[in-house]
Design a protein that fits this description.
7 strands, 3-stranded mixed sheet, 14% strand, TIM Barrel, 4-stranded parallel sheet
Length: 221
């Protein structure tokens, strides 16, 4: 019989998986490149563990980083698709080519959101399959970046018993979470460093998140 912790892990709802927090852009609305958290890339073992414990069947493969920089992105998309999880990403598009887009589509990627501000990469530059959703997002903001002085701390996803970090997470019960590249849990897009700070929720102004597709406007070409 599963203990309480394992039971909670088996039903965690994940709306974003941060494959990496490396990025090749410095958008004004993002804490890149000054946030303090260690940089890295999610391993396949951690990714598979997240898929095992997450309850929902759709997820975004990004957080504070550029997913296209992960060399195994296509492989991870295929793994998720095989597990019955629909996946999409947001990207600045700097390294996006038609071949990369085709490879991601063939691996099972369902949607992509282009942030057009930093490099003006546009959807019209690509040939898109009819059942693939490619949308654009332009913020045109001066400075709405979250606070960057927060210290890094989050609950750890127990990938291996010998792994680093605490083996209990205060965020895993009945709430949507972000899984950081390291296997830690973050709160949301305002939780820059993955901190234990529930006051961040006030920034959402009462918005209730219900599904990964709620993150941004995906309803138009």
């Amino acid at each position: 019989m599963k203990n309480v912790y394992e039971a909670a892990l088996s039903s965690v709802r994940v709306y974003q998986i941060e494959l990496t927090n490396h990025c090749n852009a410095t958008c004004t609305y993002c804490p890149q490149p000054t946030h303090a958290r260690e940089r890295g890339f999610m391993t396949e073992a951690t990714f598979r563990r997240v898929l095992e414990v997450m309850e929902n069947r759709s997820v975004l493969l990004h957080h504070f980083g550029e997913s296209l920089l992960h060399r195994e992105l296509e492989k991870f998309v295929a793994i998720a698709t095989s597990a019955g999880v629909a996946v999409g990403i947001s990207t600045n598009g700097r390294t996006l080519t038609q071949k990369r887009l085709d490879d991601l589509y063939n691996a099972g990627l369902r949607w992509m959101r282009l942030h057009t501000d930093p490099f003006n990469v546009r959807a019209r530059n690509f040939v898109v399959q009819p059942d693939f959703e490619l949308t654009e997002h332009r913020l045109l903001v001066k400075n709405d970046a979250p606070k960057k002085e927060l210290q890094s701390f989050a609950g750890y996803l127990d990938v291996e018993a010998s792994g680093p970090g605490p083996k209990k997470c205060s965020y895993i019960v009945d709430a949507w979470r972000v899984v950081l590249w390291s296997g830690e849990f973050g709160l949301c897009c305002n939780d820059v460093e993955g901190v234990n700070n529930t006051s961040l929720c006030a920034s959402c102004s009462g918005y209730v998140f219900t599904d990964p597709l709620d993150w941004g406007a995906y309803g138009g070409k």
